[in-house]
Amino acid sequence: MSVREEYRVITSLTNDTIKSVRALHMRKERDLTGTFLAEGLKFIGEALDQGRAPKMLLVGEDARPHPLLDRAKAETRKAGGDIIIVTHAILEKISRRDNPQTVLGVFEQAYAPLESLNPASAPCWVALEQVRDPGNLGTIIRTADSAGCGGVILIGDCVDPFSVEAVRATMGSVFAVSISKTTREEFLAWRASWPGSVIGTRLDATHGYRDSPVRHPALILMGNEQAGLTDDLAAACDLNVKIPMRGRADSLNLAIATGIMVYAVTDAAYGSDI
Fold first, then answer.
1. Kind of pairing, strands 8-10 and 82-86?
2. Where are the alpha helices (DSSP H) in the chain?
3. Across the chain, how many H-helices and E-strands are there?
4. What residue ranges do the domains of the chain occupy?
5. Taking a C-beta distance cutoff of 8 angstroms, is the pair 129, 152 a contact?
6. CA distance 180 to 186
7. Can you name the residues that pair with 145 across neighbouring β-strands?
8. CA-based R_g, the chain, Å
9. 162, 152, 154: which is closest to 107 by C-alpha?
10. Peptide bond before 217: cis, by omega within 30 degrees of 0?
11. Max alpha carbon distance in the chain (Å)?
12. Does pTM surpass 0.90?
């Protein structure tokens, strides 16, 4: 059986299915459908390893044979998803890149309700207040995964973790890390029962980030890129700490600062491998 007989083939940029996939660059469409776009075999392999098969698998007509691609097709079929062969021009339009990945997947979004989280399952968790930059959020999700954190909690009006830019920055960790979203009021009520340390980061804090003992599981609170952690969330912390600025720069990029905090806390739990 030929490829064109085995799978659906689309060659037109005006096809309704292609239009719907391209529309996933817009938050409104992602919110409406509850889906998002992931690009490349690495991302799709990470999803499959977490038991997440794509609802739709788009494969370039010039995609090279690969065992992971065969697995992706098999898992998509098993889950009742669609497999579509598309042209290079369509891949370019969907990804908005001149050198697009030859395999794309459309996946269902997954948020973990706060009440479903088990703090004791990991030594460190991250909560972000009104983070605005998708690259920062994606990098933080990737860092949380790398450091062995339990999950990332989004407080208030945050950037969409399932935007194409954020997903790209996770390098596949979007499928491995628990992501929750909540209001400030819901978070503060839930935080009251947190069993370990709740640590905020503020430039005006008096304690250094390595100066105080930590009770695990620790919950690290980070503010947004412009204003930092707000007063009411800082007041809800057991301790607020700062990362010293020893040069002319007066602050760190949010993702870098979060990485420093996450590894300081997880090193205390896991021990340093260096």
1. parallel
2. 3-6, 16-22, 27-33, 41-49, 67-78, 88-95, 134-147, 164-170, 184-191, 231-235, 254-270
3. 11, 12
4. 3-108, 114-270
5. no
6. 12
7. none
8. 21
9. 162
10. yes
11. 70
12. yes
Amino acid at 34: G
Rounded Cα distance between 159 and 256, Å, is: 18
Strand partners, 166: none
Tokens of 189: 């009520």
Cβ–Cβ < 8 Å for 259, 173: no
- Give me the residue label for tokens 């703090």: 119
What tens-digit pLDDT sequence spans the chain (274 residues)?
344 446 899 999 999 999 999 999 999 999 999 999 999 999 999 999 999 999 999 999 999 999 999 999 999 999 999 999 999 999 999 998 878 999 999 999 999 999 999 999 999 999 999 999 999 999 999 999 999 999 999 999 999 999 999 999 999 999 999 999 999 999 999 999 999 999 999 888 888 888 878 999 999 999 998 888 999 999 999 999 988 888 998 888 999 999 999 999 998 887 765 5
CATH topology of domain 114-270: Alpha/beta knot (3.40.1280)
Q: Which CATH architecture has domain 3-108?
A: 2-Layer Sandwich (3.30)
